[in-house]
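Budget justification aside, the reviewers requested a transparent look at the raw inputs and outputs of the sequence design task funded under Objective 1. We therefore reproduce one unedited record. The lines immediately below are the structure tokens for a 311-residue chain.
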């Protein structure tokens, strides 16, 4: 009697997983850019597309077209990529997407408290980053980094030019919520899982993923605060076993920036969201102490669930 040999699943190694994820990301972002550019050309003409390429976002058509391009070339692909990778490539959506809601809801309140109390820490990182000066032999690189930063800020300023609360809600939905979900699925869902399996060390994986997350935004003089945010999001996902605490934190960060920008534009507040703000040393120390305490409380509450693997 002939017996069939057992079939074993051949899983991609972590380096090949990362290469596959990057390849899918580049392909879908490129495809989204082509589709978005084609749609903008058909609707507005080539002049508007040229204005976008030159970062000349002064007309309403150019701003509206920039929103379309942003959604079609970045937001939609970043939502689709982790689903394709986690569900169809790796066939482990629970491990790579972490969309379960099996975590104590008190964690969401702790996340809110951490995001508020860590504000001075983020501000000092902004100040340090803005004072960064590269050696003379890297002056060309520094000039490119500053030009890239200014271009990104110009686009962001155009997208966040809000005339009323309808514009605010649109920005909160697209920049706050949908962007948070998309980026967390791909970074804390897929990429962080890959590096955990690759390095066998959750802490190393969190920091590597956070660095790539920050670099992805191509705003080098905001690298450090975004790196720290990525670390926060990474631990929220790792300890809770779910992507949603990280999404909630990401949403709070983005949505608060949108609302503060609107209030400043309409002279409701004097706080300029584009400027770093200094605090006194005692407040920095207090911020660190409270944030660390809250993180420890988050970890304790998250790891109390018996069905959650402790990192």
């Amino acid at each position: 009697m002939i017996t069939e040999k057992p079939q074993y699943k051949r899983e991609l190694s972590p380096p090949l997983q990362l290469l596959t994820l990057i390849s899918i990301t580049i392909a879908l972002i490129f495809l989204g850019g082509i589709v978005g550019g084609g749609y903008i050309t058909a609707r507005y003409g080539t002049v508007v597309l040229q204005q976008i390429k030159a970062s000349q976002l002064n007309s309403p058509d150019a701003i509206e077209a920039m929103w379309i391009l942003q959604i079609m070339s970045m937001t939609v692909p970043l939502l689709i990529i982790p689903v394709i990778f986690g569900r169809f490539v790796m066939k482990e959506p629970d491990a790579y997407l972490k969309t379960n809601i099996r975590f104590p809801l008190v964690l969401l309140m702790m996340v809110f408290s951490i995001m508020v109390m860590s504000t001075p820490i983020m501000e000092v990182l902004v100040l340090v980053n803005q004072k960064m000066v590269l050696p003379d032999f890297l002056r060309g690189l520094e000039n490119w980094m500053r030009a890239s930063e200014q271009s990104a800020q110009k686009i962001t300023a155009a997208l966040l030019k809000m005339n009323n609360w309808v514009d605010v809600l649109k920005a909160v939905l697209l920049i706050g919520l949908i962007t948070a979900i998309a980026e967390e699925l791909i970074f804390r869902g897929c990429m962080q899982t890959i590096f955990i399996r690759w390095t066998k060390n959750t802490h190393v994986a969190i920091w590597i993923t956070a660095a790539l997350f920050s670099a992805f935004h191509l705003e080098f003089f905001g690298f450090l605060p975004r790196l720290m945010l990525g670390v926060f999001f990474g631990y929220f996902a790792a300890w809770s076993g779910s992507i949603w605490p990280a999404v909630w934190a990401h949403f709070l960060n983005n949505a608060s920036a949108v609302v503060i920008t609107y209030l400043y534009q309409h002279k409701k507040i004097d706080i300029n969201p584009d400027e770093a703000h200094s605090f006194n040393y005692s407040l920095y120390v207090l911020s660190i102490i409270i944030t660390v305490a809250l993180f420890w409380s988050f970890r304790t509450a998250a790891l109390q669930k018996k069905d959650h693997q402790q990192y």
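The longest helix spans residues 165-199. The two ends are 48 Å apart (CA to CA). Computational costs for records of this kind are itemized in the attached budget.
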